[in-house]
Amino acid sequence: MALITEAARGMIGTSDPPMRVEVTRRDIVKYSVATEQQQEKFLSGDEAPPMFLFGALRPVVPIGALGPDGIPASSLTPDLPLKRFMAGGTKTRYFRPVRPGDVLVATRSLTDLYEKRGSQGDLIFLIYKVDVRTEAGERIAEEVQTRIAR
User: Fold this and answer.
1) From first to last of its 150 residues, what are the pLDDT tens digits of the chain?
2) Which of 9, 26, 124, 148 has the fewest CB atoms found within 10 Å of its own CB?
3) Residue 66: CB partners within 8 Å, gap ≥ 6?
4) Taking Cα atoms as reference points, which of 38, 71, 52, 62 lies closest to residue 132?
């Protein structure tokens, strides 16, 4: 197949600049109410529900800056011959809950690119790792994201 160029492969191991997010009790409460959480620790803002990170780590951009898949353009997306992207899954490992007052630092890296032939044509898999820590370096979560170009 050879769809992935050496220039694209050269991006493996690169990272976006770290993203810093200050978590407030109000952020946690708003998210918990909006997602209909039932546990008091979430509703009171003492602890963020696990999926809180999904939204908290998304950059806030104008709607015009979103791609057709609803995701902002990324410096970690190599120029590929296949231009339609879809989600391929996310695996998250939590080390401790997010709490009010945490200052999170998330770093997203492109860790792998590979291609496969699917039943309807060629596919390119992009694998990203997001490392989330406190400003002091305490591990909060590690997420592995897969995007598929077709």
Assistant:
1) 689 999 999 999 999 999 999 999 999 999 999 999 999 999 999 999 989 998 888 878 888 888 777 777 777 889 999 988 888 999 999 999 999 999 999 999 999 999 999 888 999 999 999 999 999 999 999 999 999 999
2) 26
3) 72
4) 52
The verdict on pTM exceeding 0.85 is: yes
